[in-house]
Amino acid sequence: MSTTLAKGLLGIEELSKPDIESILLRAKDFQHVQHQPIKKMDLLRGKMIVNLFFESSTRTRTSFEIAAKRLGADTISITASGSSVSKGESLVDTLNTLGAMHPDAIVMRHASSGAPHFLARYLPTPIINAGDGTHEHPTQALLDARTILDLRPGLEGLRVAIIGDIAHSRVARSNVHLLSKFNANVVLCGPATLLPKELANIAPNVELTNDMNSAIKDADVIMMLRVQLERQHEVMFPANEYFKFYGLRLEHVERAKPNVIVMHPGPINRGRELSSEVADSQQSAILNQVENGVAVRMAVLERVLN
Amino acid sequence: MRLVIKGGRVIDPANGIDDSMDVAIEDGLIKEVAANIDATGSEVMDAGGMIVAPGFIDMHVHLRDPGFEYSETIETGGKAAAAGGFTSICCMPNTKPVNDNPTVTSYIIERARKLSPVHVYPIGAITKGSEGEELASIGAMKQAGIVAISDDGRPVMNSRVMRRAMELAASWNIPVIDHCEDLNLSAGGDMHEGCVSVKRGLRGIPGASEDVMVARDILLAELTGARYHVAHISTANAVAMVAFAKSRGLKVSSEATPHHFVLADTDTAPYDSNYKMKPPLRASRDVEAITAGLVSGAVEVIATDHAPHAGSEKMQEFERCPFGILGLETAIGISLEQLVHTNRISLRKLVELFTTGPAKVLGIDKGCLTVGRMADITVFDTSHRWVYDVHKTLSKSKNSPFDQRQFQGGPVATIVAGRIVWRRP
Q1: Contact B270/A117, CB-based, under 8 Å?
Q2: Can you give the pTM of this predicted structure?
Q3: Which domains does chain B possess?
Q4: Range of A184's domain?
């Protein structure tokens, strides 16, 4: 049993390969639960989990909530707009207040990179990072890995192209760390202004390109990212030509390996990052990702809380 | 009232002295510097094994007074300065109200006279409210006692305004100090732009944001003939440009902070605001270039940029935390550790960086042990092992990345106008 995970899950970067493997393996057990008539288990009966979302989210928050409920835990979901945060309470005070009610874990999403890391230094309650700013989104990378592993025997040696607004993507960072630990080859692709060259050095086996065709060539997996306009504070790429150069269309998919897996963390913008034909194609694993979200988050919650 | 400091190694670069000597002080003035001074009837301070130097000057301090007294006051900042071995400090004008007129200047000088154990020299704003548009009352502030002008923290982006400010400053014979940061290039940044910022998902402040302003200012200094001083220099390019300007005979100088010559971005604890300041901690090659600049003379001043912030302001999401860290009490310890114990510079050179260096940049009558001058003296040692405990700081704030760091050598006693204002506990 990992002692790292008992303190929570802040990011993939500091997670060991065995820890990741154990979560992915356990998630496989929980995949079956999703198809049983009675989906509720009692593995976390009597535990209280607080979902604290300082940033809007539908799929991640719902997914964590369902995961906790299926494990038998009690959950409370709080969104920033409906809480004392909107009355000017500081992050530390909000968390101290919640901590005093003794939840067993806090699932937290925040628009500031490092916000959960900052709190973890002061709060004894385990914190699970459900996305911090442009830093990490660890459970997304785990569910992406689970999705790939459902369709491939292993991650090693796979060519994974991650395409889009890499600079502002916590999904990209977490996936780079995870895939790199498993010796996959990661190609990061996007407009020069959204692809900082330092990304090539954040983990081994990472290459960068601004050319979508070369990124996709012979790819086993294509991960498309949303253009995060809400995190861009300036015009970083002419909007009217984004799809022309970085939108995924069927003709691109043909350049990849024959049974390439197309993924997207959602929410998807049809016609901006990818065409409808691709989103609805045989290769698309976008709904598998959503489904695996619950199983993977069950595995994470179980590891952190038990 | 007579005090004799006996048995120390007196290092007084201004007078070419580096020898085992005694220093006699009478009525607040240096009376005699010589071997074996007769101390009969005098108070005696034993300085055996210690360095006796002219009072150290920190030309870059934020006292937060008036306006932000919950973070620091002229009194607490003055006490922290004394505990750091400084006898004179300059305070930056970004108070509330901004020190952009003689009333605020006089307020600071009067408060300091009453409450600060060390001398306080105000620095006036370049523009009204440091808003970068309309020139502040530079002449009137000069008459009231400012020693330089700067819009520290809110650099003048308009080159024409900067040009006019330099022309006026030259006519008043005071230097223009610039916090060099192109605000468009640095906008939204929280730490140095590099591999670490990209990995942490934090917006970066590129080194180029400093470089382009240093380049502009040097060109304007040439155009206007002004004395121009680069505050808290942080990049290898900036150090090279300052050296180039000097080689061309321009009146250009620069200062480095201890944190910029001891820490790189890779040394920062993730999302710990005690490592958040402007300019940010740069790449290790920049740290090396600043150190080399201190050795070569491109950088002639060590200044702390002591920037206290109340705990509540630093206990937030990283991107919301204000910029700045404490510096007064750790400056000598870090400088010894990084520059002297590593044999990069001599002790005499270290003393110059804290005394004659800033005194010359500011044009103030300080930084020497000349007989007849006011007796401002810093006594320090190079061997005593101690641990910095920020919870015991005399500053009102506690934002330091050097808490619990061990040092070898530091301030022992601080003497201002002949009076011992601080002694190592």
Answers
A1: yes
A2: 0.95
A3: 2-51+373-423 (2.30.40.10), 55-362 (3.20.20.140)
A4: 138-285
